[in-house]
Design brief:
This protein has seven helices and no strands. It is globular. The termini are far apart. The longest helix has 16 residues.
């Protein structure tokens, strides 16, 4: 049964499963921010095995795991699922992110306090 506005044989919008979207998206964001899977594992507390299975589309992460990943990547869940490219960064912004990602949590907090003094 077809609706009046639909043509028989017209293509349906492509549907992407969560696993097909989430794994490649994590990989893409890690590449953009120059974060290795090992480093992401350290930053999130999620094992490398679990991250690897998510990236290979073998597992779908829980919301809590995805929130940890987003926090490590310094983006919101909304940004994670956004289709537009909201992460077009300048070379200076990329350098700052790379520097920040190379620090331990205590060093990050100190750097953030320093940066805030300039505001």
């Amino acid at each position: 049964m077809t609706r009046e506005n639909e043509r028989p044989g017209s293509p349906e919008p492509a549907k992407v499963s969560a696993a097909e979207f989430i794994g490649p998206r994590i990989e893409e964001l890690c590449e953009k921010q120059h974060i290795t899977k090992y480093r992401l594992s350290q930053m999130t507390g999620v094992t490398q095995t679990v991250l690897s299975r998510i990236i290979k589309k073998e597992n779908i992460p829980t919301i809590q795991t995805l929130e940890k990943i987003c926090a490590a990547l310094q983006i919101s869940l909304a940004q994670f699922f956004a289709k537009d490219e909201s992460l077009n960064l300048t070379s200076e912004q990329k350098e700052l992110i790379e520097t920040l990602n190379g620090l331990n949590p205590e060093e990050r907090q100190r750097l953030i306090k320093i940066v805030r003094t300039f505001q």
